[in-house]
Design a protein that fits this description.
It is a single chain. The protein is built from 22 helices and five strands. By secondary structure, the protein is α+β, with helices and mostly antiparallel strands. It has a five-stranded mixed β-sheet with strand order 1-2-5-3-4.
Length: 506
């Protein structure tokens, strides 16, 4: 599928990184750096294309499925592990989880760290390594701090439940775990400082991110949660139903106390990791997919116990459980058959993102690539960094998203001023103007803040540029493209469109 907006950001900044450009100086972002290195690694292996990026996602998901199986097997047994791994695989096939987002990386690391943590508690060694892996999850995204807190909680609980309480040993192991968790971030700080980007890093990743997390009110957050949760559950309802059975069954399925505490704690901290800022975007829910999968495993364990109490012998019980697994898998795939098997990649992209310009970005990039030299600069007025990635050209501006320029912060007007200065001084050969609300608005916007920027956007391209292309997004299923002289005469048919300008010959 074409890249969506966040994938475009990660791919573009990773592309800059591959060309030796320092992070946070030439493209502003609130994200911690791990995802850019991971993208760069996969693009080095598989190519700088959506295919190369999504092959990386396939590999990460495959490894994560195995980790879900191993963790659930350790907690609940082998059959429960198989069901949990299957459930997780089916959840990641849901259409709202198919973009390669940071959450996929976090979950892989958290599951690996959790397995090592359980091993460390049993064997008395490995706390530093477990913390290190949880720390790698943190340098992917700030939300992962909740998983580090979960690790601390579980280490502490396992020690206070032993008599006599070994408080000194508990503090020592927590210290080792915390040290491991801190090391990746300390290394990142030294690395960023060495590149000369520490001030920009500090501002965007912490100061601005803190402001960004303060926009959403509690009532709006609850509405957002219910709206997005309905979509996530609706894309794989059978998995969620079985998980719900496991949640109820878990109360009386005779689990050991330490396993109950681990699963309960992991569930609570996983949910907390979804909540910062109360935005509840679709891909945030990937952070609770392992929990949902584990509860599906509990449902399988309970089913096996129930059949055993009815006097069903092991061979017959295994046949019944295998048949249930096949039915569970088949029904969930069948429920998504149209999306998975009938839509082509562009149609699938539009089915997820409605009229967002992700498929159109590919066509626009092809046109510009075919009609300009490799050194020609292209300015995107909108939040579509995937276009810069497709063109393999650095943006003439550092603001690859428009959102910070419009959000209600003390920085917005100054950012607009800097953006306009960068845009005008670049004298780009092409300007791509995106007239789609999701490309501009991502938070709380003040009309007084928006007016100066929009006045400039409406005036600047038409003063110095001619229209050479239009992508008119008519509906979820149709876009009209018009190029060259025909674009000048084209009458727009929708309220969502992209206009491509070329600089006038002076």
């Amino acid at each position: 599928m074409p890249l969506e907006r966040d994938e475009g950001e990660y791919a573009y900044i990773a592309q800059l990184l591959m060309h030796g450009e320092p992070l946070y100086l030439n493209a502003y972002t609130m994200k911690l750096p791990a995802i850019y290195f991971v993208y760069a690694a996969f693009m080095s292996l598989f190519g700088q294309s959506p295919y190369g990026i999504h092959m990386g996602l396939v590999l990460i998901t495959a490894v994560t499925i195995i980790l879900v199986f191993l963790l659930t097997k350790r907690l609940l047994g082998a059959y429960a592990g198989v069901i949990a791994g299957t459930a997780f695989a089916l959840l990641t096939l849901g259409k709202y989880a198919l973009a390669f987002n940071i959450e996929h990386l976090i979950i892989l690391l958290v599951l690996a760290g959790s397995l090592i943590l359980l091993y460390a508690i049993d064997r008395g060694g490995g706390f530093l390594l477990s913390g290190l892996i949880f720390g790698l999850a943190f340098i992917a995204k700030q939300h992962a701090v909740f998983f580090i807190l979960f690790g601390v909680f579980y280490i502490f609980w396992t020690h206070i439940m032993v008599r006599p309480i070994r408080m000194l040993a508990a503090l020592k192991r927590i210290g080792l775990f915390f040290t491991g968790a801190a090391l990746p971030f300390i290394f990142v700080c030294f690395y960023i400082y060495a590149t000369g980007a520490f001030n920009a890093f500090r501002f965007w990743v912490f100061e601005y991110a803190a402001k960004y997390c303060s926009f959403m009110t509690l009532s709006d957050g609850i509405k957002s949660f219910l709206y997005v949760a309905d979509k996530i559950v609706g894309s794989s309802p059978i998995v969620w139903i079985i998980s719900g059975v496991g949640l109820i069954a878990g109360v009386w399925s005779r689990l050991d106390r330490d396993k109950i505490v681990f699963i309960t704690g992991f569930s609570i901290f996983s949910f907390l990791a979804v909540t910062p800022g109360l935005y509840f975007r679709h891909h945030y829910f990937i952070l609770i997919f392992p929990v949902v999968a584990i509860f599906a495993g509990i449902a399988a364990r309970y089913t096996g116990q129930f059949l055993s109490t009815k006097g069903i012998f092991l061979p017959t019980r295994n046949i019944i459980l295998a048949a249930m697994l096949i039915l569970f898998f088949s029904l969930s795939i069948f429920q998504q058959k149209r999306f998975l098997f009938q839509l082509n990649p562009v149609e699938a992209c539009r089915d997820i993102y409605n009229r967002s310009p992700f498929a159109e970005s590919v066509e626009i990039s092809r046109y510009i690539e075919a009609n300009s030299g490799k050194e020609a600069r292209v300015l995107v007025l909108g939040s579509e960094p995937q276009i810069y990635f497709y063109l393999h050209r650095p943006a003439p501006v550092k603001y690859i998203y428009m959102y910070p320029l419009l959000e209600s912060t003390p920085y917005a007007l100054n950012m607009q001023k800097k953006f306009i200065e960068e845009a005008e001084s670049s004298k780009s050969e092409y300007v791509i103007c995106v007239n789609i609300d999701t490309s501009w608005f991502n938070g709380y916007v003040s009309p007084n803040l928006a007016k100066p920027l929009f006045d400039w956007v409406n005036a600047y391209p038409r003063k110095y540029y001619d229209v050479v292309g239009v992508a008119d997004i008519i509906s979820r299923n149709e876009s009209i493209y018009c190029w060259g002289d025909k674009a000048k005469e084209y009458k727009l048919k929708s309220d969502k469109y992209i206009v491509i300008f070329k600089r006038k010959i002076s």
